[in-house]
Amino acid sequence: MSPVLVTGMGMLSPLGADCPSSFQAACAARSAIRRVPEALGAGLPDLLMAPAAADPQDFLGGQGAGLDRATQLAMVAAQQAMADAGIAAQPDDAERFGVFVGIGFGGAHTLDAMFARYYTALYGDTQSRRRAAVVHPLSVPRMMANAAHAAASMHYGLRGMGHTYSVACASSAVAAGEALRAIRHGYLDAALVIGAESMLTPGSFVAWNALRVMARPHATDPCASCRPFDRERSGFVLGEGAAALVLESAARAHSRGAPVHAELAGYGASSDAHHLTAPSAQGQAVAMRQALSEARLEPAQIGYLNAHGTATDAGDVVESQAILDVFGTCAANLAVSSTKAVHGHMIGAGGAVELALSILAMNSGCAPPTAHLEHPDPRCTLDYVPLQAREIGPVEAVMSNSFAFGGSNASLIARRVRS
């Protein structure tokens, strides 16, 4: 099958306002995690978050004013990726150019603000109660899951097939994988893939806190609170942001002399059919093996793996077991790290962000570290690149894992472009 190439990348993450600054911060183990302001904490103490490094509205001007924050983040990343790929709006082959979006919970800011206003008015004076049901007429379009897809496709005039995938923490990894297959099997010639998320709202914090998966603030440094694979880990930190990648068939990319970052070579997806929140090593291993098979690569050819690595007790142990199962004796030479230690868990945006960081690691020859990994959990026995980035030299391929609540697993492989 014809290769599918990554010709553009963009990002607005907690680590930076573009791909280079985000990758530089990840390699420097510079954490974006901080305490949640009291106004957002909904009365809960000791909450943490990793907010985007910049306000997306600053990059969008008036065109972003009517969008939910998650869609604003998506559009900033999309603009960067399309500019990086050298593609303008309204391409001649717009009917062969699709948009694929992954998001966990679209419109969280719109929904939270709407309900806050509604209940404040409902329990106010008589005049306020009469206005309680008066909300913005575009509330539904702002908070619908496919809002980012609609905004990107309309802005660039892209009329090819495309979808929004809401698969919790695997959302944008699935979006990238399905876009890969749509191009590989001839349904499209190009696709804009976006992962976005913004759930840093009081309602979201209350809900996530109830799951008992959120990290506790570190005793001396809140920035060091997310500690994947460390025996003192206590959970993850919610982050927000977006990343976008432009995928093109090799024929399309070569015909226009496009710059190429990598080949997106493999995608695997599986369902645990096991438990709503507990992970399964068997299911995760299936996704990784599928990705290797589709990429036609052996485990020894993967030089770096960006782990899902959420810093939950069960999650880190199960993923380590799954990687050992798939990579066998090759696991001893595999550099594995979780960048969530510094940018938090970006839910629907995580797959796209971490895939982009993995591609940058492959091209730079530098593996970002697992920050704050000071006391390795003896149950997690891989090489997690603790504390400091590592030169890994030229590697042929990299893998990025995204495993979701509900038992949905996705694994992606990018490789150097073959001559």
Q: CATH superfamily, please?
A: Thiolase/Chalcone synthase
Number of H/I helices:
14
DSSP strand count: 15
Distance between the termini: 15 Å
Q: Biggest sheet: strands side by side, in what order? A: 5-4-6-8-1-9-15-14-10-11
| Low-confidence blocks of residues | none
Q: What quaternary form is this? A: single chain
Q: Strand share of the residues?
A: 15-25%
CATH topology: Peroxisomal Thiolase, Chain A, domain 1
Short description:
With 419 residues, the chain is α/β, with parallel strands linked by helices. The chain is built from 14 helices and 15 strands. The two termini are 15 Å apart.
Structure commentary:
The protein is 34% helix and 19% strand. It has 419 residues and is of the alpha/beta class. It has one domain: Peroxisomal Thiolase, Chain A, domain 1 (3-Layer(aba) Sandwich). The radius of gyration is 21 Å and the shape is globular.
Helix/strand layout:
Blueprint: E1 4-12, H1 19-27, E2 34-35, E3 48-50, H2 57-60, H3 69-85, E4 97-102, H4 108-122, H5 126-131, H6 139-143, H7 147-156, E5 164-165, H8 171-184, E6 190-197, H9 202-210, E7 238-239, E8 241-249, H10 250-255, E9 262-271, H11 281-295, E10 302-306, H12 313-327, E11 335-337, H13 340-343, H14 350-364, E12 366-367, E13 390-391, E14 397-404, E15 408-415
Parallel strand pairs: 3-7, 4-5, 4-6, 10-11, 10-14
Antiparallel strand pairs: 1-8, 1-9, 2-3, 6-8, 9-15, 12-13, 14-15
Helix pairs in contact: 1-14, 3-7, 8-14, 11-12
